[in-house]
Structure formats: C-alpha cells, structure tokens
C-alpha cells in the first residue's frame, strides 16, 4: 500500500478505492487503533497515528468470524467430505506403511470448513489464532495438606516439557502438540507432560517437611560441621561478598563452644547454620548433612519478622540454600522476603559498602532465579547502583553479566514485533555477551571457556559461576528459535520467501537456533572438565540445574532432521547423563537423570521406527543408543512421522512473520532498553 500525507475530503473518497488519487484503503483497523478501541480510517499511516506520530501497522491476516448458524451449516456440509478423505488417507497409509506402525500414527481427523485449504492473506483459515510454541504452564497437585498450585513462565525448563513430550512421544502414544483455544487464558495445563517425564518432585519442589527446632548442636559432630563450613567458604562465599569470613568463623566456634559467656544474635546464628547446611549439601558422605539442612529451615522462622541488614543477608543465604537443595519455589519465596526486608530497612538507599554488596547479591540471585523459573523480577535496575567503569572486581563483572541476563529475560515479557525485529534484538543481546566476554579477560583475566587446570580457590569459583551464567543466558536467549524451527519442520515449511519476511530465511532461523545448541554443549563440556579435575566440586555449583537446561535443548535438537542442528547432540546427551549420575541420587538430580534416560530411549525408539518404515538397518557395531545421525534412514522421513496433526490447508510458502505474529510466545524481543543501555555503558 502507498502512503499518503495530503488531506482528502470525505466527498471525494469511496469505501475501497479513490480513483483520482489512486489511494487504496485498508478494510482493517491498524494495531494502534485496535489497542485504543477507536475507529480507523484505513490509510497508511492512518489519520490518528499521523497526528500522534505513532507507528501505524496492520495485521497480515484476517480472522474471519461467522455466525453460529453458518458454522453449524458448514460443519454439517463438510463432515461427509472429511470422512471420505480420511478413508482415502487410511487406504493409502495401509499401502505404504507397515501395520505395526499404524496404531502409533493414528489421530483424530480435524473437521474444517469448505475453504480451509484456501489461504486467506497468506494464512490458512484452519490455522488457530495462536500457536502455543512457547507457553507458560500451570502445575497442580493434590496432597494431604491441600492443593498445590504453581506457575512457571516461558523461560523455565518445565515449559519445554510439553514440546519434549510432543516431539518425543512415548512408544504407542500419539504426539499431542500444544494447541490452546484462543478464548481461554494463555497459561496452559502442564500436568500431562510433567507426569509423562515423572517430573513431579522437581516441579513441586520436593517441598521440605518442617522439622522441630533443635535447642543445640549436641546431636551433630563438630568435625562434620567444620568440613561443611570450609566447603562453603571455598565454593560459595566468594559470591556473597557482604559476608565477613572472620566473623563467620568466630561465630561458628561460639556456637559449638560450651561456654555461655557470649550469646549470638538470631541473625548471626542463622547465617552460621545456613552456611554449614549449604556447604554440607554437596558432601553426600558427610554425617548429619540432612540434620544441618533441617536445622537451617527451622531457624528461618526465627527471623521472619526481624528487619535489618543482617536479617536481609541471612534470608538471602537461606534462599540460595533452598535452590541448592532442589526447592526453587521456596528459594523464590525467601528471595522475595529478603528483597522486601531490604526495602523496609532502607538498604537500597544506604551508601555503605556492605549495603551495596548486599543489594548486588540480591540483584544477581533474583536475576538467575527468576530467569530459570520464568518469574518476574521485583528488584529493578534503578534500585541498585551499578558498578563503576573502573571497578574490575569479579563482583562487579558478575553484576554486569546479570544485567545482560535480565535484558535477555525481558524478551519473554514483551509484545511481539515480528521475527525480523526479534532476531535483531536477540543478536543485540548476543553482542553484549561477546563484549562482556572480551572485557572480562582484560579486567580480571578470566577466560570463559578457557582451561581450568591452573585455577584454584576464588579464581576457580568465579570462573565456574560466571561461565555457567554466561552459557545459560545464551541458551535461553536463542531457545525460542529452536522451538520455532522444530514447529516449522513439523508443518513441512521447508522454505520461506525472504522478500515476505524482510530478509529472514530458514537458514537465518537455523543459525539462531545453533547458538542455543552450542551453549548447551558448552555447559556439558564445562561440567565434564570440572569433574575431570578430581577436586570434589560435584555438589557445589548447581550443576544439576544448568545440565537440566542443556539436556532439554540437546534432546529437541537431536530429533530435528537438519544435521546442522542435530550433529553431536545425541552424544552430548550421553555425556550429560554420565555427569548427572556422578551428582548422586538426591532430588532434583534423581528426577533429571531419569528424564534424560527416558529422552535417550525415546530418541532411539523414534530412530528405530523411522528405520523400519524406510527399510533401513542400523550399521554393524552400533548399539540402540548410538547417535541418531548414524542410523541408516533418509532424514526426510522424519517429517511424515511427526506431521499427523498438520492443519489442512497449510501454506508451505507462509510468511514467517505471519506465523510468528500469531504464536502464543508471550515473548517479543523489544528494542534496546535506553535506560539499560545507559547503565550498561558505564560498566
């Protein structure tokens, strides 16, 4: 459509076309007028947008709404045709597919209208108004104490369970893809996929049972507690710079001494107990480790209503202990309490170094916890003072990295602007990550992805946590494009006209998905390198949570027929499984390990089905769990097995922007945040 800025009187205008001025009017209202619920004149730009100097855009599709009587008539007239088509499809399927595979591919035939096969403005009418490729989920569970209801956002690994369950169905079960009714709320029921992978213990936190408080540490061993405290000081204390190590050790001795001349404050006691419990959690052979954790949880109630800087720090320490113990939602609750106490105590307005370090720790821990759970952050960038440019400490660098992680997290909470803008915004955040990596080397000497054998002490601790956060931020930043690539492949969209997408092609989408896969592989490689050092770091750095995000991406990429995405993913899954088994059998590691074993089994079964359909055989010397890419079957046979629910009338030349705009992503990569850019520029 051509743009016109000259005023035109109503007398010389027609409804659709003005012959004298050659101006074509749009029968639809622009997005801005839709949002404001006002009348639109249909021009480009329309009069109201031109007066307000607003961006004027129109939808690329029309949502046709018919009356109930017409819908019923169309349903009656097409039922016979659809049944006849399904009989023909069934006959052709019997002729080309062995009978042993028919039950796995059977699915109900959708009922569509007469014009379903005819695209409307590039979009078939049979397409739902939104595709739940990336969605929020709700998890519910009935317990003896009542009903548990939890919400997880789109960036959480639990939202990906639906896609894993769809692209990797259990043998004999039909693939069920998320396809919500557009009239219902956007939060979907995730219970089916959670049960499919036996993920209840993780999703519902394996919630702790409140133990009665202990009067003293007579039931525990001094030597065991000292080992746990030392482990905490070596592995976790560097990330909590507000802790005074000398005071912490002195309070530990006072807690275990028989003399009663010195009484610890409640907050100091909680800090010591939480530190012991945190350090003892990863030491599976340590006596009384469960008793330390139970005591820390019992002490949490003693500082619930105390408001000062020390209780803020103690509550923060308790929240991270719960995250380490496999209860991320309890961690989220404690973290929110710590932030509210900081606001109530005015810690965010204090200029002392201890208060600033406390706010930095709150900011970083909330950034990671909310990103991994899909929650919204409550502590804003304006609530803390960012590190000065000349500050080259590890603490300052970690704050800068968490600020970038937040900019990546914002893509899950913005309005969609089309795939071109989304890719551009994701690339902008990726550029920030690359800049951070290069500046980190010059300021601290820490090389992300570099060798580990020469690192010790605090340097090694910072290398591990910064590398993990860097990789998981990159993984979550580009994971939506991997999910979109899988959905497009399932719907047999093999090519997209670049001129209809502002230059976006499938190859560009695949390239973006590769970034997420590379980050997943890097997480596995980092964990493997750490464990090979033999320095007992298996239980100290949330390895299970980062490996969980990595294996979900690797499993999804392994079933994509493109070798660009699937290459090496199946082998990395086996490596991740070996690493998870080294972490022990406690939750949440136990459930993650079982889920990975199930993923590998499903991928192998899927490859075996495809090999049987095409008559291919597994090569000599290859086990059933060998790489899918090594199995002897054509890659193009993967699409028909997964396309049983492809909508009738799907347009293979459908514009990617058309598809992206109707997906229920609950995301949208925004333009660069000017406030964040300003703050980041001074880092």
Automatic annotation (TrEMBL):
Gene Ontology CC terms, in alphabetical order: nucleus
InterPro entries, per the entry: AtrR-like, XnlR_reg_dom, Zn2-C6_fun-type_DNA-bd_sf, Zn2Cys6_DnaBD
Membrane-crossing segments per the record: none
Record's subcellular location: Nucleus
Pfam assignment, any one: Fungal_trans
CDD domains linked: fungal_TF_MHR, GAL4
Alphabetically ordered keywords of this record: DNA-binding, Metal-binding, Nucleus
One annotated GO biological process: DNA-templated transcription
Residue ranges annotated for the Zn(2)-C6 fungal-type domain, each copy included: 29-58
Record's keyword annotation contains Metal-binding: yes
Coiled coil ranges: none
Compositional bias of kind Polar residues: 117-127
Compositionally biased tracts (Low complexity): 92-104
GO molecular function terms attached to this record: DNA binding; DNA-binding transcription factor activity, RNA polymerase II-specific; zinc ion binding
SUPFAM superfamilies tied to this protein: Zn2/Cys6 DNA-binding domain (SSF57701)
Top-level taxon in the UniProt lineage: Eukaryota
Residue ranges of the region described as Disordered: 90-127
Name of this protein: Zn(2)-C6 fungal-type domain-containing protein
UniProt lineage: Eukaryota, Fungi, Dikarya, Ascomycota, Pezizomycotina
């Amino acid at each position: 459509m051509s743009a016109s800025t000259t005023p035109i009187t109503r007398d010389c205008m027609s409804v659709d076309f003005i012959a004298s001025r050659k101006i074509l009017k749009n029968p639809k209202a622009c997005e801005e007028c839709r949002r404001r619920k006002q009348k639109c004149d249909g021009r480009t730009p329309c009069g109201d947008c031109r007066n307000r100097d607003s961006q004027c855009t129109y939808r690329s599709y029309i949502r046709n709404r018919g009356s109930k009587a017409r819908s019923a008539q169309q349903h009656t007239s097409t039922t016979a045709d659809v049944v006849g088509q399904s009989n023909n499809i069934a006959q052709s399927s019997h002729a080309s597919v062995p009978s042993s595979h028919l039950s796995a591919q059977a699915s109900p035939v959708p009922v569509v209208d007469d014009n379903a096969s005819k695209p409307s403005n590039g979009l078939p009418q049979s397409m739902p108004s939104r595709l739940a490729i990336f969605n929020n989920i709700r998890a519910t569970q009935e317990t003896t104490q009542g009903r548990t209801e939890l919400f997880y956002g789109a960036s959480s690994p639990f939202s990906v369970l639906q896609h894993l369950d769809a692209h990797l169905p259990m043998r004999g079960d039909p693939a069920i893809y998320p396809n919500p009714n557009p009239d219902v709320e956007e939060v979907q029921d995730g219970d089916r996929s959670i049960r499919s992978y036996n993920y209840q213990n993780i999703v519902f936190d394996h919630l702790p049972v409140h133990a009665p408080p202990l009067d003293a540490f007579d039931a525990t061993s001094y030597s065991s507690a000292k080992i746990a405290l030392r482990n905490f000081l070596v592995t976790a204390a560097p990330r909590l710079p507000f802790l005074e190590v000398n005071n912490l050790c002195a309070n530990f001795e006072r807690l275990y001494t028989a003399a009663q001349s010195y009484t610890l404050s409640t907050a100091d006691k909680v800090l010591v107990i939480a530190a012991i419990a945190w350090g003892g959690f990863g030491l599976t052979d340590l006596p009384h480790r469960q008793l330390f954790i139970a005591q820390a949880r019992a002490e949490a109630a003693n500082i619930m209503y105390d408001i000062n800087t020390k209780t803020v720090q103690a509550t923060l320490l308790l929240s991270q202990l719960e995250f380490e113990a496999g209860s991320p939602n309890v961690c989220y609750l404690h973290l929110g309490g710590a932030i509210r106490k900081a606001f109530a105590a005015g810690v965010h307005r204090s200029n002392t170094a201890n208060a600033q370090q406390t706010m930095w720790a709150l900011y970083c821990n909330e950034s990671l916890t909310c990103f991994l759970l899909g929650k919204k952050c409550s502590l804003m960038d304006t609530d803390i003072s960012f590190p000065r440019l000349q500050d080259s400490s590890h603490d300052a660098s970690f704050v800068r990295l968490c600020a970038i992680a937040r900019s990546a997290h914002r893509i899950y909470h913005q309005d969609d602007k089309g795939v071109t803008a989304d890719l551009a915004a994701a690339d902008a955040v990726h550029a920030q990550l690359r800049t951070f990596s290069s500046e980190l080397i010059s300021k601290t000497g820490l090389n992300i992805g570099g060798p580990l054998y020469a690192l010790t002490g605090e340097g090694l601790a910072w290398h591990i946590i910064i590398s993990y956060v860097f990789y998981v931020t990159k993984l979550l930043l580009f994971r939506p494009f991997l999910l979109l690539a899988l959905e497009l492949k399932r719907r047999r969209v093999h090519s997209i006209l670049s001129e209809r997408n502002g230059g976006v092609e499938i190859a560009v989408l695949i390239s973006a998905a590769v970034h997420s896969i590379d980050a997943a592989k890097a997480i596995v490689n980092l964990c493997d390198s750490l464990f090979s050092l033999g320095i007992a770091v298996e239980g100290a750095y949330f390895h299970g949570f980062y490996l969980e995000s990595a294996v979900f991406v690797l499993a999804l990429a392994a079933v994509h027929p493109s070798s660009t995405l699937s290459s090496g993913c199946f082998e990395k899954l086996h490596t991740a499984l070996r690493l998870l088994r080294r972490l022990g059998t406690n939750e949440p590691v136990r459930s993650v390990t079982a889920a990975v074993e199930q993923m590998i089994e499903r991928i192998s079964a899927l490859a075996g089905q495809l090999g049987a359909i095409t008559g291919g055989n597994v090569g000599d010397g290859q086990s059933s769990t060998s790489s899918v890419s090594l199995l002897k079957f054509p890659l193009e046979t993967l699409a028909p097995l997964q396309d049983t629910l492809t909508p009738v009338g799907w347009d293979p030349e459908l514009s990617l922007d058309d598809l992206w705009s109707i997906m229920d992503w609950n995301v949208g990569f925004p333009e660069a945040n000017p406030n964040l850019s300003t703050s980041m520029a001074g880092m």
